[in-house]
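User: Duplicated hybrid motif. Structure?
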Amino acid sequence: MFFVSSRIYERSLLLILGVLLLGGPVAALAGGPDRVVVVADTLNVRRHPAASAEVLWTLSRGDVGLVERRAGDWVLVRVDRGRGYIAVSERLAVLYTEKAPRTVKKKGGKAAPVSEKGANTSLAGIRKAVQAEEKKLLAVRKEERDVIRELDRFNASLSQARKRERELNRELAAVEAKVSAALKAKSRVEADIRVGRKRLMARLVAYHKLNQIGEMNTFAASGSFHDMVVKKRALARILGSDAVLLTRYTALLRERKGVEAQLSAERTALAAAAAEHGKVLADVEARYRKRAAMLKEVREKEKLSLAAIAEMKEAERILEAKVAELAKARKALSSKNRFVRYKGLLKYPVTGKIVSSFGRHKDPRMNVTTFENGISIRTQRGEPVRAVSSGEVLFADWLQGYGNLLIINHGESWYTLYAHTDEMFKTKGDRVDAREVIATVGDSSLSGYPDLHFEIRHHGKPLNPGPWFKK
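Assistant: Predicted structure:
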């Protein structure tokens, strides 16, 4: 998939301005810039050249003003409504210098200046070109957002595939345990059959000898009638015992047949589970490779930085709404172990390197400032994630922009958030202890690396986690 950079479009827009206005790239000429055109959607006009100064009114994209004085990155402009200061940059407003009045040749050979009407027509053309490029830029930015959202959806599907893989691993282990138990049962039955067969063979030999002597001869050899009765009763008991032995042996043979049938069924189930596991594993690997390719493309496209920022802001909005919703429905927790008491004593939820800290961060390439609501800790995928303090699981599910997310309620409107996990061991409503393993680290963040995003919030407001951890 090929994308055209939004930065390229923005620079192209400025280049068009320069070509239309100056016949070349936008630049300050020797005479100094005396006009400014607004390229931002809206731009504040302030009383003084400072971001904290009072806002007098706002200008819209395409508005043009006359520059009276320049003060660093600020200029004093005059428009129909009056005078005021605006900030200038390639993303807000662009300065340009008008050339000397352009002339045209009359039929008599003399030159005549272009009329005011002609100048206004030229300005209208500039604005039209700006609007056309803006439409292209909006289309490109929409495409950028679509890519980021597609990546988030893809991470969700990859997470589900990995979850199914773990379930199949457990199913395989259970089936293998059943096969092992069936094999042990078969071995036990075979051993019992061998013992029973040995006993039956001994009894058959005895029967054979008795048959050769004859029953009457055996009884006739008795010394008295009493001895004959005793022998007859003894023989009856022996025959009864042999009948029981034969019945047990027959039952063992039937049991062996049943065990063999069960073993065959378990082996069939094992083969089916292994085949499904192979398919799911292949699907996971294919999805992982595709995601790796998508991430590589994302990293190679500077333009996606702005789209990623927009998506992070949207994800933050969704998260804040979710926290507020959950806070309304939460149950009051005991304040016996107040979370605030542990400030400066907490241990990190996972071992690793902090790659993103709390607060404002400026991207020097994109000239964009973002705000990080927590910290990101880079580690190994599958590394155990531990609850920093005891509490109750308020949320345990996939959330756009945060992947598999766990939110723990610590009481008194204190919450901790654990984002971009892989396998979650807790569900909504579960109680957790301090340092209890609640999940494993995943790799669903836009970085593509196994980064755990961690936040501390009070009444929904994100706080700097740094001072809460033990030094």
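Confidence is low (pLDDT under 50) at residues 1-13, 18-32, 99-123, 302-306. The first strand starts at residue 35 and ends at 38.
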